[in-house]
Please model this.
Amino acid sequence: MAKTRPPKKILESYTIKGSDKVIKPGDCVLMRSADTSKPPYVAKVESIEAAGSRGTNVRVRVRWYYRPEESIGGRRPFHGSKEVFLSDHYDVQSADTIEGKCNVHSFRSYTKLDSVNAEDFFCRFDYKSASGSFVPDRIAVFCKCEMPYNPDDLMIQCEECSDWFHPSCIGMTIKEAKKREHFFCQSCTAENGKTTENFHEATGQSEEKERCYGSDACFGPVVDPFKRERS
Ligand SMILES: [Zn+2]
Ligand SMILES: [Zn+2]
Model:
């Protein structure tokens, strides 16, 4: 006996059960993980549809954000605790698994937040889940250790070359760095002593350093120096 399935109905919004939070396509949400010991998944809602009659059985088509530990390369020292990658991995999930709304900020706007709440995340890389590669595959690096900026770590800026430094990489405590009103890095101090005349010419333009972060192979040499200070 052929029975026609009820037609899918596209919904414009969905209200999270037991709350007044309304989810719309384009919103970012936290979705319950089957493993309750794990933090909720972060996803972007692409569309919402009801398969059952009377608008029941609501399903959401989502695009997953991966946490660094879910990526092939794993979590790196420069990954922030609230960092996620926009993946190319789509899925259809029951709307029942939505726990709440969240905000995935651009890196720039995340670093400008006055306070970071539990629902605040940031994304600076797209992630290809099949190959484990990132877009962009190059990112600016800072400090003597040449690491990308981790917004969880305090850094101090040299007033001359504008590079940023981890206090631990320049033999300073975090307390000292916070109190410091002026800071000139070692190489700027050294150059200043030697060549006072063309000092500004020599260092006025700081070259932006970049490193390849596109694939596993590229991570190695840059991460190594960082390990030194963590061990
Ligand atoms: Zn450093
Ligand atoms: Zn400097």
Remarks:
- The helical segments are 107-111, 174-179, 186-194, 199-203, 216-230.
